[in-house]
């Protein structure tokens, strides 16, 4: 199959899966079989596209113009291929996990849940493979609309409130700010929105004031990147079931946000224009502020999902910081963070879900002694925590190394200290959780009893164990990954040597 047809297949498969799920809604085993088989086929298509990209090809598909100068164009380069691999690959893991969680927790409206999940992956892949800002914006909104029912899935007052905040914040920022930035770019670039290596706006006569205003519109209009103060939708969305939280934090939504920030920085502004834009330093400062404040707030949360939500806000800021460092190492560090954070944070959320299904515990203070009853879950949690912290041999170490290198090379010498401070705060709010789980409950020799006979369903344990293993495996694959990303980030990836700790 030709690369352009592979793009079309990758876009059509999630829609076909959604239709199959709807048709098989009364037969749970068939419904979930459609999800699993379809997601595996989708990953195979995306891998074939990634292989073509690694061989120097640029898969391209034009579906025609919605209006003069506004075409639905898809073009896959290495950064987009990485995001597509993350979204399609982790969808399989999340699907297995969802089966165990949704059945074990006896959730309602499971058919609607799986249908919306398929549409969300459709939106994420459209974002990943977009060839211009118009296409990206359309699929960005598809992703927002398809995930709203997932956030409000439970249907109670808290879920409805969280869903409203989610929808209004993301639509408000994207229509009010992001769309404005897109239209302004279209005007500045002579009715062109294509992603161009080196930057669409590079070489144009754009004043520092204009480039700063445009950068601010993009940075705060891409609300899914959760840069403070446009971050509050994310903690409010934690009312959703845990598989949805994993989708929000690892598979699609926030990754689509930071991917868009990186894509705009590299292919719309370009390194040279970003370096010449005064607003770059302001956004870099806001990203550093978000890293520290998000971590400090996380430390105050006893609810595990709330703590992980603020951790995500802080960790997403690493990608924005990498984009604003605006050199090869910064772009590479931010891109690596997309993959490393995805597997690490997905593991943490799936562990939280397994604990909830087994015991009903949602607060960290309730988890004392549970490590003795659920050892595999807490071992996975510990490994993922080390990756988020950035300790070798975990994947997260490389992202922080490259970001520090980029900041030093670019003269942003305060950034490495912020990253070190952030890592120390990561230790403070993550490692006490598995340590507490090993301690016996006060006044009782036994930890909290399981509410479900046999504890967590096997799928809710196997899935985080698998992604925890990926945290280690990715560390040793960072050399090939950096080489793969080099055409997008602007050079060779010499700083990373596979198997050598940073």
TrEMBL record:
It is a multi-pass membrane protein. The keyword Cell membrane applies. Residues 130-413 form the NADH:quinone oxidoreductase/Mrp antiporter transmembrane domain. It is found in: Cell membrane; Membrane. Its main location: membrane. The chain crosses the membrane at residues 34-53, 82-101, 113-131, 137-153, 165-186, 206-234, 246-270, 282-299, 308-326, 346-364, 376-395, 415-438, 458-478. The keyword Membrane applies. GO terms for cellular component: plasma membrane. InterPro entries: CPA3_Na-H_Antiporter_D, ND/Mrp_TM. Keywords: Cell membrane, Membrane, Transmembrane, Transmembrane helix. PANTHER family: NA(+)_H(+) ANTIPORTER SUBUNIT D1, NADH DEHYDROGENASE. Belongs to the CPA3 antiporters (TC 2.A.63) subunit D family. This is Cation:proton antiporter. It comes from Hyphomonas chukchiensis.
